[in-house]
Amino acid sequence: MLDYRGSKTTLCAGCGHNAISERIIDAFYEMGVAPERVIKLSGIGCSSKSPAYFMGRSHTFNAVHGRMPSIATGAALANQRLMALGVSGDGDTASIGIGQFVHLMRRNLPMIYIIENNGVYGLTKGQFSATADLGSKLKTGVINNLPAIDTCLLAIEMGATFVGRSFSGDKKQLHTMLKAAIAHRGTVMLDVISPCVTFNDHEGSTKSYKFMKDHEEPLTDADFVPAFEEIAVDYDPGTAYDVRMHDGSHLRLRKLEENYDPTDRVTAVARLMQAHQANESLTGIFYVNTEQPSFVELLNLTDDPLATLPAERVRPSRQALEKIMEGLR
Ligand SMILES: Cc1ncc(C[n+]2csc(CCOP(=O)(O)OP(=O)(O)O)c2C)c(N)n1
Ligand code: SF4
Ligand SMILES: [Mg+2]
Question: Which of 35, 52, 154, 200 could lock onto 57 through a cystine, CB 3.0 to 4.6 A?
Fold first, then answer.
């Protein structure tokens, strides 16, 4: 199990992202995936920092903000023996990275893509992201007047072949979904609701970041982040569950029933839309398609990973080059 651990987390105590890292460690350990066979990929954000905190022996690439999908595509195609695990945030995916995200979803690249969804840009101090719900409120009192992007709906519509949503505090469900994700060959898109516990400093407070910044002469560039208890839930399939968040708001989770058929794409879209109408966060595996060829199969790549082929096998012969030149005349 020690081989699956990473560096000590620098995220806030109680941040949902830490709980997700723990579940990733458990799932990869239990599925017997050697850490050296995994490449962890991420963009920018607190969520995107989290690959440093699990599977320290795996390969890692921390990409530019919102650009992880293209790095992942290159890595997965160059070496199909590696298992690609992407960790992104709602800002990284649904704002700056949305263009890359939709193309990744339609290609069925073999990889697991996790969105650690807290509805804000945690790393840049809590602005709304594009997954923030209409009418939701920041601690600052700012109201979000734009509709949320549902990344699961978008992924199904774009052609992803394994799509689900969970909650960082639902140990059992997330663990199971991650194990199923590891077993899937194609793109797995998991949107995991993952609370950001930090943003409780507000206008008028004499203990807020702003007040302190305006009134103090800092000796060092230190910051204070309050600690919260991690929220954990356990509820039955087919039922709903109200979670009271640290800021007093409520999250209404509903777990798909046991006899739900995840191979029916139309039902998956309808259930997600109904959940929106009922103001519920539906959780579970919404959609799975095991028939669709993966991007690697579609491209008819060689069995040996491209990254390991010697020059004699990748360099075209003189005759082949001449034939190409002939065709261009
Ligand atoms: C090109 C670029 N634009 C903007 C930023 C500033 N920035 C850093 S992280 C971030 C958003 C992170 O939000 P999210 O992906 O939801 O991650 P979280 O911190 O909430 O886990 C932004 C806008 C950046 N680093 N690079
Ligand atoms: S700021 Fe929010 S998202 Fe970032 S580590 Fe702290 S709790 Fe997590
Ligand atoms: Mg976020």
Answer: 35
Residue 118 alpha carbon, nearest atom of ligand 2: 3
| Span from the CA of 126 to the centroid of ligand 3 (angstroms) | 8
Residue 206: predicted pLDDT: 36
**pLDDT tens figures, 255-309:** 999 999 999 999 999 999 999 889 888 999 999 999 999 999 999 998 999 999 9
pTM of the model as a whole: 0.85
Alpha carbon of 120 to ligand 2 centroid (Å): 9
304 closest CA partner among 293, 289, 314: 314
Which residues, at least 6 apart from 178, have a Cβ–Cβ distance to it below 8 Å?
23, 24, 26, 27, 112, 190
The string of pLDDT tens digits covering residues 11-22 is: 998 899 999 999
- How far apart are alpha carbons 64 and 130 in whole angstroms? 19
Indicate which atom in ligand 1 lies nearest the CA of residue 43. Answer: 15
**CA of 120, closest atom in ligand 2:** 3
Q: Which amino acid is at 28?
A: F
What are the residues facing 116 on neighbouring strands? Answer: 89, 192
